[in-house]
From TrEMBL:
Keywords: Signal. This is Disulfide isomerase DsbG N-terminal domain-containing protein. InterPro entries: DsbG_N, Thioredoxin-like_sf. It comes from the Bacteria. Residues 1-25 form the signal peptide. Residues 30-113 form the Disulfide isomerase DsbG N-terminal domain.
Length: 244
């Protein structure tokens, strides 16, 4: 059977429960997923639900991705638990919301960790803007020059700098023209020494009427685009905050 990603498993089970008898299995939930989808998963957390008799919340992990489920105590039924889950029981809803938030935070962190590790290993450039405040917080923004939402986000950069440093990972993700613009940016920004000089270059290249000058994307622009895709980041702007 062809293996599926954990997100596709969630799609399969979110529309209804799947049942399977696994008498005597040491890990019935893991075996259930394996039997029904072909995917190898492990349980990283189980939370009994006092509000639902014989039910529990479980978090399953496959690779670097985690997804929450509702499961019966015997591990014979899994139901996808996501932000669309509705109940009149406030305590149950809070438990589920916290679990979804926990898995979302983990999944986002694994993407950002992988991206930063690749950038440091390959010594790819980032646009570093220093806050005037004394802070160890850094906001990373993965951004494409041709993305209108990224252009809007660039307009908020001075506000971010009031209390945190900003590092922009400019990526040619949306089109070939984006790769050319990212190449231009990394070439032009090498000599910029101040925040304002760097922001001026960013705004010039992010403007709708900027025409990229290169005929071949740079090694850095191509490498950063590959690193972003490999990390699992699929949309921009993508923001995450770290302490460094």
């Amino acid at each position: 059977m062809k293996k599926k990603t954990l997100s596709s498993i969630l799609t399969c089970v979110a529309v209804g429960a799947v049942g399977f008898s696994l008498m005597g299995a040491s890990n019935p939930i893991e075996k259930l997923v394996k039997e029904k989808t072909g995917a190898d998963v492990k349980i990283v957390k189980q939370v009994p639900l006092n509000q639902l008799k014989d039910m529990q919340v479980v978090i399953l992990e496959s690779g670097n991705q985690r997804v929450p489920f509702l499961a019966d105590k015997n591990g014979t039924t899994l139901i996808g638990a996501d932000s669309s889950f509705l109940t009149s029981n406030d305590n149950l809803l809070l438990t589920l919301q916290k679990t979804v938030q926990e898995t979302d935070a983990y999944n986002n962190r694994s993407k950002s960790d992988k991206l930063l590790a690749t950038i440091k290993q390959k010594n790819y450039p980032v646009v570093t803007l220093k806050s005037p405040a004394k802070t160890n917080k850094t906001l990373y923004i993965v951004s494409d020059p041709n993305c209108p939402y990224c252009q809007d986000e660039l307009g908020r950069v001075e506000g971010h700098l009031r209390d945190k440093n900003v590092k922009m990972i400019v990526v040619g993700l949306l089109s070939e023209d984006s790769l050319y613009k990212a190449s231009d940016l990394y070439s032009q920004i090498k000599t910029a020494q101040t925040n304002q000089a760097k922001i001026n270059i960013l705004r010039k290249i992010y403007s709708g009427n900027y025409q990229a000058s290169g005929s071949q994307p740079s090694r850095d622009a191509l490498g950063i685009a590959e690193a972003v895709r490999d990390s699992g980041i699929t949309s921009v702007p993508y923001k995450f905050e770290v302490t460094e």
